[in-house]
Here is the input.
Amino acid sequence: MSINFTRSAQNAYLHQKRNSNSTDSHCFDEFQFRKAGVLDIPYIFGLIQEGSLIGSFPNSLMTAKGYAFLFKDLFEDVVPLLRIFHNKTQQAKLYVFCLNNEEIGFIKIGLPTNNENFQEIELCAIDPKHRNQHYGAKMLHMFLEELPNGTKVVAHCSKYSRAMQHILIREKFCRDKRSFPLECFRLIKGANH
Here is the structure.
C-alpha cells in the first residue's frame, strides 16, 4: 500500500538533476513512501539496532528489555488493533522510504489523538549503504511537503546524531532545548523563521 505523496518536491529535484550537466546516476530515481507492514519489522529493527550502536538512538534500546519493547512497539504500529488491547491512546504511523522499489530507510510518526495539528518524528533512519547521499534530507523533505501549513512538528534526536541535526536545521527546525540523551527540534510548517 503506497502513500499518495505529492510529487512536487520529487519533480523539482528531478528537474534540477536533469538540467544540470551532472552524470549522476540518480537523476531518474523514483522515491516513494509506503506504509510499513509486518514483513518490514526485521528491516526497521536492524536499522534501529545499527543506529543504537553508533549513537543515533538511545542505548536503552540495546538491552533485552529494550529489544522486547521495540519489537512490541513496532508490531503495534503496523497492527493498530494491538494498541487497543494495550490501552495506548497515541497512534503512530510507520513508513518505509524506498528508492526504485528498494527499502532505504524508514520514518515513524507519532500522532497524538487529542491534537490533529501536531506530529512527532519519533524515529527515522537511512540504511548505512545509502547514507551520505542526501536521502535522509529527501525523506524528511517529502514528509514535510505533505503536511498542511500550521502543522506543528517535533523531532527528537541524539546529541551524537550530527547528520540528523544538520538535516533538521536545513529544513528550518529550531532547537528547542537540550536534554539528555535527546535534543528537541520544533517546526511550524509554513511559519516564517
Q: What stands out?
A: Helices lie at 8-19, 41-53, 64-78, 81-85, 135-145, 162-170. The chain is about 35% helix and 25% strand. Residues 64-78 form the longest helix (15 residues). The domain at 8-18+26-188 is CATH 3.40.630.30 (Aminopeptidase).
